[in-house]
Structures are given as C-alpha cells and as structure tokens.
Design brief:
Length: about 230
C-alpha cells in the first residue's frame, strides 16, 4: 500500500501566486489520472514498483523540505554572519554559497519530477495502451484527448533548461547561470539568481501539488473503479 503523504505537505496561503499554481497543478494531476483511467490505461492492481517509487518520492520531498528549512533557519539565525565570515576565509563569498544552493536545490527538484514521471508510467497497463514496452509520457499524451494537459505540464520548466541541468551542461559566472541549448554546447542562455529561484519555487509548489493528490487519487480509483467528481 502507498505510504502516507509526507508531513511537510503544505497548502500555500490563499491569494498568493504559489496558491494559484498549487491549485492549478493539483487539478491538472487529477484530470490527467482520471483520463488515464477512463481510457483504460491504469493498472487495476497496485505493483511493487509503484510502492518503491512512492516511498522514494516521499523520502526525497522530506529531504527537500528539510534542506530548505535549514537554509532559511541559517539566514535568520545569529550564525549567519559567522558562517559567511568563515566561508570568506577560503575565498567563498555569500553569493557563491547561494549559487551552489540554488543549483543543488534545482537538481533535487528535477530528480523528484523525474521520479513522478516514473511513478505515473509504473501505474499504466502498457498492454492496454498498445505502445512500445517503455513508453514516455509524451507517448501517453498522444493517446489523450485533452492536449492542454500536456501543455500544462510543460509549463513547469523549459525543456532545454531541464536537459542542461540534468546533464550538467551549465556554469555560473557573475551570479548568472549559463546553460547550453544545443548538443554541440555552442549556444547558451542565461538566468539570474532571482529568475532561477522563481523557477525552482514553482517546481517545488508543483511537486507539492502532485504529492497532495496523485497517490490517493489512484488508490481511490482502484478501490471504487469510478473516478469521483473533480475537487
């Protein structure tokens, strides 16, 4: 059986941009799972692979939440100046620490997103879909009628940025992230620290939205065999 939602699942305050994103992608997740079920693509039984992935995802989100909390605590604690003063002795500036943190945090979130994809694929009855043995989410989207769902998921992060971060083809210069957008590593795009923060914050909110509903929705469908009304 799936593990319970992690204790760090938090609904953002109403009226905020985070709440708007959370609500939107919670509904996108519900619509996506319901349509997979209605098309007959969802496995009727829970699999061991799903259980393993559920536990891993929940654990990773806990680690992510704890790392954010620790950094935020450091930033407002009496230890902040001491920490950065010590780093400076070794030529590491405050902005260098933030650059490293943002890159590390982004990789954590990307890892969670990729595991969400693997989880969804593990829930599918690949024989019923009639696709190759190892379909991608893109293959599944082509079988669905509501193409807007695919576009909504694509909003989370630009594919070229995701690929660059996933393959390590990026570097920092003057507090700006430079990442490659072609296989030859000749063309690059840039993001400021603030722009990257906005993106990673959105990924975190989307991850939280998915985590808040996906596992329970699939379990509910399997128990009742009928998707309930959208909530």
């Amino acid at each position: 059986m799936p593990v319970k939602l992690n204790e760090h699942h938090i609904i953002p305050p109403e009226g905020t941009k985070d709440y708007e994103i959370f609500t939107k992608f919670k509904q996108v997740t519900i619509d996506f799972i319901d349509e997979i079920y209605e098309k007959g693509f969802l496995r009727k039984q829970f699999t061991e692979e799903e259980e393993v992935l559920t536990e891993i995802i929940t654990e990773r989100i806990n680690v992510e939440a704890q790392s954010i909390a620790k950094l935020e605590q450091l930033m407002i604690s009496e230890q902040r100046d001491l920490f950065f003063s010590d780093c400076k002795k070794y030529g590491i500036l405050e902005i260098d620490v933030m650059n490293y943190y943002m890159a590390s945090y982004t990789h954590q979130l990307l890892d969670i997103i990729e595991r969400f994809k693997k989880y969804l694929l593990a829930t599918l009855d690949k024989q019923a879909i009639g696709l190759r043995d190892n379909p991608t989410l893109g293959d599944i989207f082509t079988k669905l009628e509501h193409k807007k769902i695919s576009h909504n998921f694509d909003e989370i992060m630009d594919n070229k940025l995701r690929n660059a971060l996933g393959h390590g083809s990026y570097y920092w210069k003057n507090s700006t992230l430079h990442y490659t957008i072609d296989p030859e590593y000749k063309r690059t795009r840039t993001l400021s620290l603030g722009e990257l923060y906005v993106i990673t914050r959105k990924i975190a909110v989307v991850s939280n939205a998915f985590n808040s509903v996906a596992f329970d929705r699939i379990l509910e469908i399997r128990r009742n065999h009928v998707p309930k009304e959208n909530t």
